Amino acid sequence: VQLVESGGGLVQPGGSLRLSCAVSGFTFSSYAMSWYRQAPGKGRELVAFMPSRGGSTNYVDSVKGRFAISRDNAKNTVYLQMNSLKPEDTAVYYCYAAARGSVYWGQGTQVTVSS
Description:
The chain starts with a strand and ends with a strand. 0% of the residues lie in helices and 54% in strands. By secondary structure, it is an all-beta fold.
């Protein structure tokens, strides 16, 4: 099983990034996918959630209207489009897969928002 995030980096406030998480080793379309983040000195926080077959998504209040989660089941990939980034969005971002009691984490990708 592998979940490999990419797309992180350094961006100025107000900028955008698109994170990707490529999955292998399990039936991606059967898993709900989420993005979490962990800022320095803080706990891991659920940022965005998408059910296994798409549909209704959920976001933490602090990113609503700025972030968008999506998935491409044909490419076994989940995305997080992040717009209007703020310094407080600085964190390591992790993708997370869950279904029927099985959960998997990616290794994380660093996002730094700074001028």
